[in-house]
Amino acid sequence: MNKAAIKITAMVSDDLDEVMRIEQDSFTYPWSKNSFQGEILSNRFAYYVTAKDISDSVIGYAGAWIILDEAHITTLAVDPSCRQMGTGSLLLAYLLRKAIEEGACKVFLEVRDSNRQARRIYERFGFEVIGKRKRYYHDEDALVMVRALEKVKG
Length: 154
Fold this sequence. Notes:
single chain; 7-stranded mixed beta sheet; 4 helices
């Protein structure tokens, strides 16, 4: 798939069935549909987006909280059949731009220690490991990663 054919849009309730399919295919402990619904409808600090292909199908999604001068990436997933095509990088780049626009100076995230593919993407985007959260994923530790952001000049 051509990256130019992928569009990033705000996540809406109508996206949630497709989001949940990807969520369940991607995570051992998936979020509930109600959790996503609460994030997109009620959390004023949350920014959730989807990546859609030319047929308007959701092929990935990501979310972050931006509070004061910090951002926290809460989730990022790509449909297993659409991985290795740059969709995750597009989503991550979008969230980083949004964080900068909103005045964040740093972005944090947690990632499974064993998730080498995700860790490589985050490292390519300048994230560095700064710590560990023991048993964060019930069955595994999480690495805490951070990246400093440049302020938008203007």
